[in-house]
Amino acid sequence: MTTQHALPSYLNAEDLGPWGQYLKQIDRVTPHLGSLSRWVETLKRPKRILVVDVPIERDDGTIAHYEGYRVQHNMSRGPGKGGVRFHQDVTLSEVMALSAWMTVKNAAVNVPYGGAKGGIRVDPKTLSKGELQRLTRRYTSEISLIIGPTKDIPAPDVNTNEQVMAWMMDSYAMIEGNLSTGVVTGKPISMGGSLGRREATGRGVFVAGVEAAAKRGVKIEGARVAIQGFGNVGGVAATMFANAGAKVIAVQDHTGTVVHSGGLDVAQLHKHVAEVGGVKGFPGVEQFMERDAFWGIESDILIPAALEQQITAAVAQQLRTKIILEGANGPTTPEADDILADKDVLVVPDVLANAGGVTVSYFEWVQDFSSFFWSEDEINARLTRIMQDAFKSVWEVAQEKNVTLRTATFILACTRVLQAREVRGLYP
Ligand SMILES: NC(=O)c1ccc[n+]([C@@H]2O[C@H](COP(=O)([O-])OP(=O)(O)OC[C@H]3O[C@@H](n4cnc5c(N)ncnc54)[C@H](O)[C@@H]3O)[C@@H](O)[C@H]2O)c1
């Protein structure tokens, strides 16, 4: 696709990174937006970008500076919502794309949020716990100008967790001088977190997987599942598929790949990862492989649940699977999407498959406002219903328009966002 884009000066047109991937996805949905397409440029520009310097004192007395970001892509449907990522490869292009995918995702499952995302360019494994706390608190203070319970609500993403959210909430509460429980989600239960939030994304991936499998005539019982990433999303999805009788035949993380055609013992693998920090060295498996060989493993369901741009055109050629459930954000490039469509692989896109996390984040936020907390069963049941309904709506659009599930999700979501944009009108 050769559509030209008016690019902001801070992007490198030669290397757009994940933002370029997102722009191509918008190009694909635009012909389906009818009269709303006059507003489509709104989706190609983040509403607001904040780049901050985050200095901390290291334990050895030196001063280190890190680059931090918060991007609010679109707020037509509600306050910004999206995670915070701590990773050495975080770039502005990546945070922009992740914020835009949050706009689409929140609209796809119809929760009343816009899209936002944040990140710090840091490898948190190189920091002590004290340094990590200082980094988180200073970052929160720098972005406190634009976040807040009714403005923009961060949550965990890669390498951030309940503890990081607790520090964020406490820092924001100190600055504001009030409780501010609803400023972040994914908090510990003891300070206003929601039951079921930790597992929500993986659970949502599983629910979407059950729906997709039914459409493809794949039985979950005995289905061969391969997973890249064994963290919050991949690890929980692995447990849920294994509990439902599927065989998790391969898991890859940043340390290595483990494979067992008879099905890995997922509970034992969790213990191993908790002890040594990765899947590498897990005993009793059939083989460890070259990193790229992972993509050639034959499976029924493949779950990329690590980082973006993993399934490139070359990887897509290699894949031998029936269904891809995108636990990660942006794991598949548009070129790979075309190859997978030709190969008749059913791709359940990130903006649908991993929306369970933000859905329960929404429940957490609602519970915080009323200080009235729901049971885990209630949360899981509501989550399952929202995921099933969203899948059904997307499937219908895909059938009606004869498009992939990704384009169908974008049609549904972008229509909702741009309808809100249009009815609000432009200020002033
Ligand atoms: N946590 C959430 O609620 C949530 C919600 C929606 C989407 N996501 C997306 O899911 C993905 C994973 O997030 P998470 O919260 O599980 O993160 P996490 O930090 O808990 O886990 C990340 C996993 O990816 C693995 N990994 C990292 N680099 C890798 C590499 N080069 N090759 C193979 N594996 C690698 C890590 O070893 C780890 O197992 C991200 O794309 C994130 O944006 C997360």
UniProtKB/TrEMBL annotation:
Record: residues binding NAD(+): T201, N232
Protein name: Glutamate dehydrogenase
InterPro entries attached to this UniProt entry: Aminoacid_DH-like_N_sf (IPR046346), Glu/Leu/Phe/Val/Trp_DH (IPR006095), Glu/Leu/Phe/Val/Trp_DH_C (IPR006096), Glu/Leu/Phe/Val/Trp_DH_dimer (IPR006097), Glu/Leu/Phe/Val_DH_AS (IPR033524), Glu_DH (IPR014362), NAD(P)-bd_dom_sf (IPR036291), NAD_bind_Glu_DH (IPR033922)
A Pfam family matched in the record: ELFV_dehydrog
Protein family per UniProt: Belongs to the Glu/Leu/Phe/Val dehydrogenases family.
Residue intervals of the Glutamate/phenylalanine/leucine/valine/L-tryptophan dehydrogenase C-terminal domain: 194-425
Marked site (Important for catalysis) residue numbers: D157
One BP annotation, GO: L-glutamate catabolic process
PROSITE patterns, sorted: GLFV_DEHYDROGENASE (PS00074)
Organism from which the protein derives: Pseudoduganella ginsengisoli
